[in-house]
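Per your request, structure below.
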């Protein structure tokens, strides 16, 4: 499968690298929200992805949106037994046939993109990101929304500034 990257989207790992290995927790909040939303779609479609990561998520900082563009060769219907999963996926669990694995991968990705300054994240956010994913993606998203409200208060758009030359040759 070859997908063309839509204009304005950047691989999340490229953004993390361009920003020195970490993203401010305020931006991690909207990125995790987008990943939780994607996970709700996966639940609706009865799919488990098994490879949600900074290398498979692409973000659009101008729109605060994200898309899951990579890693689809590990995906399948809930209940399937994949032939292989990435080593990183083994860090968060071993039941690759359930939705809980994708929720746990979202949390791990949130931790990773916070970088070494993870301790700058509000404590309620730290606790949630360190937890295990919930098999019910809808509950997971609702709980995350409560975390964001408790951590940052009323929602407001904060622009993520990234170097313009991120993909210039």
């Amino acid at each position: 499968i070859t997908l063309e990257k839509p204009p304005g989207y950047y691989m999340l790992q490229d953004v993390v690298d361009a920003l020195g290995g970490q993203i401010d927790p305020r931006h991690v909040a909207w990125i995790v929200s987008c990943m939780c939303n994607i996970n709700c779609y996966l639940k609706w479609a009865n799919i488990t992805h098994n490879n949600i990561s900074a290398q498979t998520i692409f973000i659009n900082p101008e729109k605060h949106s994200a898309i899951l563009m990579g890693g689809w060769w590990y995906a399948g219907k809930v209940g399937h037994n994949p032939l292989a999963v990435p080593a990183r996926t083994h860090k968060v669990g071993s039941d690759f046939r359930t939705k809980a694995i994708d929720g746990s991968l979202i949390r791990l990705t949130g931790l990773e993109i916070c970088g070494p300054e993870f301790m700058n994240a509000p404590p309620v956010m730290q606790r949630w990101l360190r937890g295990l994913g919930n098999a019910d993606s809808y509950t997971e998203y609702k709980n995350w929304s409560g975390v964001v409200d408790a951590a940052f208060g009323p929602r407001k758009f904060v622009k993520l500034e990234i170097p313009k030359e991120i993909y210039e040759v």
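The two ends are 25 Å apart (CA to CA).

Regards,
D.
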